[in-house]
Fold these 2 entries.
Entry 1:
Amino acid sequence: MKPSQWSRERFGDAAEEFLYAIPLAIHRAHQQSLAAHIAGELSTNDAYGNTLKAAQHEQLIACTAHIPGVTTRKPAEVTSRFDLVVFDETAVVLYPWRFAVDGWTRRKDAKLPKPLSDLRRSLLTLATPNAEAQLSFDQVDEDPQDFADEQAALDQLAEFGRVVTVGYASNPSGLFDLGLAEIVLADEETGAVVWRHWEPLNGTWESLELRPSLVQPPVPVTGGVRFDDTPLDDLVLAPRTAEPLHAAEVELELKAGSDDV
């Protein structure tokens, strides 16, 4: 998939890698949650939904870990159970949001669940133009260089304040919609949002697990005993003795019996 200008502004030279990694992560999270749903044998979708809440974050971290410049941080001063993927080069934060649990809800009608969490309020306020940065991150450790790197990332985030929402709709029946978005919280009371940008990734997950891999050349067999090296026993075949036709008919009559008995 060729990156758009919008994607390149947010992911730089790594845009193509992100466009591969993000749908792969959501696809794997969906499959992981589906497995939990099947194993749970429940009539409801609770096992699917609860697994997905954690799997979406864990898979995003796992699938983007190889991209240079990607780090994971947990927001400070707000309630958050999960680390978020941060691309330091452009100070972009990835935030997954399952905006619908079916395939027919329109994106523009989707609303954040109430009560609105501090994390969502903080992240989506960052997407507002000219907003002051409200998001900070805990320091990973006490190393001075790491602290300096973290502070530089925070300074960038304060300047740009970009949050890319990974929006999707799904349930155990399938993954219906997937894309990258820029959304703004419009009403804290209702959870209504404004979709300022949507970049669809629909269908890209169908062949993600089929990325070609290197084929190992065949290893030649030199010496040794093969399992089929043992000579076969000679088969002794003799012609079948033909039985006279009238004898076979007599035997058939004896076996069949008679209706007169």
Note: Residues 5-210 form one domain.
Entry 2:
Amino acid sequence: MKLLKKLAAASILFASAVSFTFAVDYGKLATSLADGSLQKTVGNGLNDFGDSLGFSVPQSAVQQNVYAEAFIGKVFPAVPPHFAVGFNTGFTHLNTQGLADAADTLGIDGVKSDLYFPVLNADVRIGGVFLPFDIGFSFMTLDVSSMIPMDAKFSAEFLTFAVDARYALLEDGLITPAISVGVGYSMNSGSFNASNSDAETNIDYDVKTLYGQVQISKTLNVPVVKIGFTPFIGLRGVISNYSNDWSWKYKGESLSKIQDAAKIAKLSIPALNGDGTASSDGFGGFQPQVYGGVGFNFMLIQLTASVCADLRHVGGDDNLWSGALSLRAKL
């Protein structure tokens, strides 16, 4: 009987200690909401993440329609026109430290401070019809939630449409390389969401990108086996315009627990949610990029591997670079 009484007393003490611990946690949470420190920390984190998307998304977009040849047409009109269509897959490094900080402040565990987000798009290019230029289009719509390893409940969706044109300065010859200059434009939108049963963060991004580039390539053929390869390198200048809306909120049982803790402490707390926008002032944020790779050609098929680095964000937390692999049929 004495043993049972001791066990009962110990259980009561343990339950009280647990309840007290949770009360202290929600009390601190209510205090940080009342003095505005929580809102500031979460807002700063989501703003940082929104700004990070402002230069990471353009990096991903311009690397989705890279061809090994600097120009796929002819300087003089060609019949039939030169044509290529295929698929591109790749990834871009994304600094998610701001999102991780905001999520951690809200009690959402398991959001990583960086990730490599995947892309998969279809593209088509036509050139050499009447003038020495080619035009390319690429499109992607993808839910990559299951492709990104994350301990937290996490979702990510992307939508991209891009168009570009390249003008031939020099055609690939017996000795001379192909050289082209080009311009491009892309529209990108999507969302990131991290949540648990008590809280949620969300950011909807809208990024528009303009760029100019110069590319040089040289196709080398091995006649006996009918295989060729095309090494290439290029430089880009990228500017972007972005408006990325973010929001956060508490939900579920946490709402009443925070409100109860605030009443006990006689604190006045604002609404248990917030929102804001991370945006640019028009087109700006010049990003110099270098890209290169090699295309492997077999009859009408080309496999292209490429990499791209943002020279302003190499190293450090951003360490902005991309890799891509493309498979296309060419005529």
Note: Residues 2-34 form the longest helix (33 residues).
